Amino acid sequence: MRKYIILVIAVLTFIVLHEGAHLAVGYAYGEFESLRILPYGVEVIFKTPVEQRSGIQWGFISGSANALTLSLGYLFFLIRGKMASLNNNFWRNYVYYLTFLLLLIDPFNLSIGPFIYGGDIGGITAGFGLNQYLVQVIFLIILLLNRELIVQKLFPAFGVKTGHFLFQPLFFRRQIK
Asked: Among residues 37, 58, 55, which one has the least CA distance to residue 46?
């Protein structure tokens, strides 16, 4: 039960970081209006309706959250050895779950998510004048690479073993003797 509580805390941390970045950048551009708590999460409401949004600021407002969470994910990934050796099980598990979430959620959100629920990609592509499908392909590659980093580096560092088909190496691991 304790691990599930730690996972929920990591998910809440992710939400605060992600939506907080939208809020902060939106506020800086004078676009923040309010927050809405929904059954599936938190949504930042902006002053300008979606259909009227244009300009580079929307690229920054929409993309800042993804940049923040991915950057933190890579930072935690780089120091995974130190984090995995923490004696405090709460912090050790928390950092593991948070790293896992930071590396996967936003690449999923920007690659597969647009087919299901839209999301941040609209602001990113409109703001920066990018092709949506190109952005989706780039983030699908990032998602697959991050998944491989998790399977081959993060799991072993934290002693995680799984037989789940989604978390099997795509590329064979070299056995170092």
From this structure: 58
Beta bridge partners of 41: 38
Return the number of other C-beta atoms located less than 10 Å from residue 79's C-beta: 11
Burial profile 12-45: b = 16 or more Cβ within 10 angstroms, e = fewer: ebbeebbbbbbbebbeeeebbeeeeeeeeebebe
Measured CA to CA in angstroms, residue 57 lies from 2, 53, 111 at distances of: 41, 9, 21
Report which residue type is found at 76: F
The CA-to-CA distance between both ends of the chain, in Å, stands at: 38
φ and ψ at residue 112, rounded to 5 degrees: -95, -35
What pLDDT, in 10s, does the model give residues 19-77?
Answer: 999 999 999 999 999 999 888 778 898 998 877 888 899 999 999 999 999 999 999 99
- Run of H or E including 33: strand 32-38
Q: What is the pTM of this model?
A: 0.89
User: Helix axis angle, 132-149 relative to 89-111, nearest 10°?
Assistant: 150
Return the higher-pLDDT residue of 42 and 150: 150
Instruction: State residue 176's pLDDT score.
Output: 45
